[in-house]
C-alpha cells in the first residue's frame, strides 16, 4: 500500500558533525548508517527511515543549525509549496528533484515551523512502495512514534494542516495552566467515526515557558527501555531536558538533545516497572 498525501515519510538530521551524530544515535536507537559522506541513510529494523545531512560552512553561515526535520508526502510538491506560500507559509528551499528519491521543497507553516513536502518517485521496477518511517499500525523499534508541533497559535496551525494535509483533531488532553494538548488524526487514514487512537499521527500544543523560542516540530523515536535510553543519552554526551514521564497507554516519553544541539524525543516502556 502506498503512502497517503499527508503522511510523514522521512526524517532528516542536519548536523555539524556527522560522525559524532552517528556515534551518538547508533547505540541509542540501534540505527545503522549507509551512503556517502555528505548524506547518510538511517536504517532501523527492516527499513530506511531517514537521513543525516552534514551541514557545510556555507549552510551554517546562512543560518542553518543542527536539528531534525520531517518530510510530509505530497501529491504534487510544486503545487503544495505554492499553496502553502499563498496561505501565509514560506518557501525556504524551492522545489527540486533528488535523483532516485523524488521532488522536494522545504517550507514553513504560517507560524514559522519548518518541514519538507515531498512527492516520492519509486525506484525503477518498484510499484507503490510505502515508507514506514512513521507507522500508524504497529510499534517499530527505532522508527518515529510521535510527531509533535509546538506553536504560537495552535488553532491556526490545526486549520492550516487540516486544509493542506487532511490532519484533523482527534481528541485532547488538558495540561492545566499550560493549555491543551490536541491530538492530530490523519483523516485519510482514519475517516470520521474511526475508533479513538486510530490514525493518530501526533499532536499540537502551545509554546511552553521553558521551551524553544520558535515554533517547531519534535519527533519521538521508539526505544525498548526508556531508562536505558536515559543512560545512553548521558553517556553519549547528550543533554536531557525532560526526564521520563508517563503518557497515556502506560509508556514513557522524554525530551533531549544530541551533542551537536539537535533536539528530539523518545518513547518507550519502563522495564523496571513491568
UniProtKB/TrEMBL annotation:
Which ranges carry the VOC domain? 7-120, 140-269
- InterPro entries from the UniProt entry: Anthracycline_SecMetBiosynth, Glyas_Bleomycin-R_OHBP_Dase, Glyas_Fos-R_dOase_dom, VOC_core
Short name of any one Pfam family annotated for the protein: Glyoxalase
Superkingdom of the organism of origin: Bacteria
Location of region: Disordered: 252-274
Give the matching PANTHER family.
GB|AAF24581.1, GLYOXALASE-RELATED
Q: What is this protein called?
A: VOC family protein
Organism in which the protein naturally occurs: Parerythrobacter lacustris
Amino acid at each position: 500500500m502506498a503512502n497517503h498525501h499527508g503522511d510523514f515519510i522521512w526524517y532528516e538530521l542536519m548536523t555539524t558533525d556527522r560522525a559524532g551524530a552517528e556515534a551518538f544515535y547508533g547505540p541509542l536507537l540501534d540505527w545503522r548508517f549507509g551512503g556517502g559522506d555528505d548524506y547518510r541513510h538511517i536504517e532501523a529494523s527492516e527499513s530506511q527511515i531517514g537521513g543525516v545531512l552534514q551541514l557545510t560552512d556555507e549552510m551554517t553561515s546562512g543560518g542553518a543549525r543542527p536539528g531534525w526535520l520531517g518530510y510530509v508526502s505530497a501529491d504534487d510538491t510544486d503545487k503544495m509549496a505554492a499553496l502553502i506560500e499563498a496561505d501565509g507559509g514560506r518557501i525556504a528551499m524551492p522545489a527540486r528533484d533528488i535523483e532516485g528519491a523524488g521532488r522536494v521543497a522545504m517550507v514553513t507553516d504560517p507560524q514559522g515551523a519548518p518541514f519538507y513536502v515531498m512527492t516520492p518517485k519509486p525506484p525503477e521496477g518498484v510499484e507503490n512502495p510505502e515508507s514506514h518511517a512513521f507507522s500508524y499500525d504497529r510499534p517499530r523499534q527505532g522508527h518515529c512514534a510521535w510527531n509533535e508541533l509546538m506553536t504560537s497559535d495552535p488553532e491556526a496551525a490545526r486549520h492550516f494542516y487540516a486544509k493542506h494535509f487532511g490532519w484533523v483533531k482527534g481528541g485532547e488532553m488538558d495540561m492545566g495552566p499550560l493549555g491543551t494538548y490536541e491530538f492530530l488524526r490523519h483523516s485519510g487514514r482514519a475517516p470520521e467515526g474511526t475508533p479513538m487512537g486510530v490514525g493518530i499521527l501526533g499532536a499540537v500544543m502551545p509554546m511552553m515557558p521553558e521551551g524553544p523560542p520558535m515554533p517547531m516540530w519534535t519527533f519521538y523515536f521508539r526505544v525498548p527501555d526508556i531508562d536505558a535510553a536515559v543512560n545512553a543519552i548521558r553517556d553519549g554526551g547528550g543533554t536531557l531536558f525532560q526526564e521520563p514521564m508517563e503518557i497515556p497507554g502506560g509508556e514513557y516519553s522524554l525530551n533531549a538533545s544530541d551533542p551537536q544541539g539537535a533536539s528530539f524525543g523518545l518513547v518507550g516502556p519502563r522495564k523496571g516497572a513491568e
